[in-house]
Amino acid sequence: MNIKEKMQRRLKLNRPSLRARARPPKQRTPLGQQFTAANLPSALSMQTCSDCGHVQYPPTELCGACLADGLIFNDTPVDGLLLQRTDLHHSLWEFFKRHLRRASWPIASVKLDAGPTVFCHLGDRRLTTGNRVQVFSHTDASQSMVLIAVGAEHDVGAREVRRQLTEQLGLTQPALRQGGI
Amino acid sequence: MRDYSGVALVTPVSWGYAKQSPHGAAWFIGSVLRELIQRSGLQKSDIDGFAVSSFSLGVDSAIALTQHFGLSPRWIEQLNYGGVSGILAMRRAARAIQAGDAEVVACVGGDGAVHRAFEGTAANFSSFTIDASFPYGAGGPNAAFSLITQHYMDTFGATREDFARICLDQRYNANHYPPALLGHKKLDLGGYLAARPIAGPLHLFDCVMPCAGGEGFLMMSIDRAKSLGLSYATLMAADELHNAHPQDAIQYRGGWTHYIDAMYERAGIGPADVDCLQTYDDYPVISMMQLEDLGFCAKGDGPRFVHQVDMRFDHSGPQSRKLPHNTCGGQLSAGQAGSAAGFLGVVESLRQLTDSAGLNQIDKPQNSLVSGYGMINYDRGLCTAAALLGRGQQ
B137 vs A88: CB contact, 8 Å cut-off? Predict the structure, then answer.
């Protein structure tokens, strides 16, 4: 590697804004990586306590209700109530910064019927507080699992539908910069 | 709960506020420690208790700092509790002094702000943050707070003009507190409303500016403070409760509701007697929540209350009811120096009660209520604490 390549590589690491391809945050804890793995084959899978039935999210080591060492990932009903939505106009992360130059980025907190409250990307800008929604999981362009809320009319049980909804949000592709490193 | 009699707080120090700094946290913590020693007239070896709060010590801990600074304390505490760390340090240190575990405790919060440091803190704040909130795009806790703010506005009819009351009076106070990072800039309602949007209802002046800085004070017995000739404040009452109201789907109240009445009772005063209030103001909705939960108005009345009360330090506002609030500008105008922000209210109260505030001094306050809130682990702040400080009798 010559000096020019070295400097380019350093710039790419230290200056995300110069990267040709910016991706969503990849970092997850080991439990978050388990969440990603468990959700690959299903619409939504969350830790469920085999002792008390408590559904746990975000993922933890032990059941947050009874402290049993009995959490296993199980398919979880996708239905929930949209508690509150908000439109982001600012981010610290280059992937979102590039999207935010074009439009605000809607996210929401949803109370799942199964119990947990989740933060999720909002797949439909018409959705607002008090709407019934469905929350499904999908990998983003960093191959990490994220949650997405959409209206009740979608058949999120179908993988192809989930794929399409995620693509529409721009989550499956890196955000590009012409002439970036 | 036993009282905190016999314990004194002395020598408030705020140090080195800067938007960015090449220095690490130890520089700010050590500088505060040096100032505490100089201003108290003590020797370094007199300090036998050391309580530290910081987000950016990296691989170091409070114990590593004892070797950095050549301290040999027989009592040590590290409190990484963000917005309540100052009040918690004070409570812990007071008990240590009462029990005789330590005689002089230095309580210090400090954090650096190297280039892109805040991004690192936000991305790695907690395991819940890493797995379940940072991937959704907001810069740090903006997502959680924009949801909390919008929920509060929808539930209680609050408007941006209501939140502006808090921000504008604080900016006025900051205009009289030279170390405040935004103190050189005036802010009016038009400027506040025209600020660029950040997340939902939150605009630029609703969000604290992360910065570097240090805050600290010494604690010792009242007898020791008197023998050193130091002006001091006393701890009238204090309490804390964490992860309170977990059943609330979106946070609109904090743990204060559980203990504030008993705390006033122990202190022997009520909210109407409070001369000076320092709330934790990372976002104005949180200060409004504290005005309610600390008993200054009923739940949901915050948006009306802020229009009826003058929160400037010098009583120069038109409202007849006076309640000096965040008299150095709070974090919204002074800057949020990481964990030191959890000390800001205590240090500012101490300055006010020892008449050492300078330009933003209130006229002889007899007490100050300081409130802490913090640690957005996922969707809400988990920590709450409050303390009533009183003027020491000279």
Answer: yes
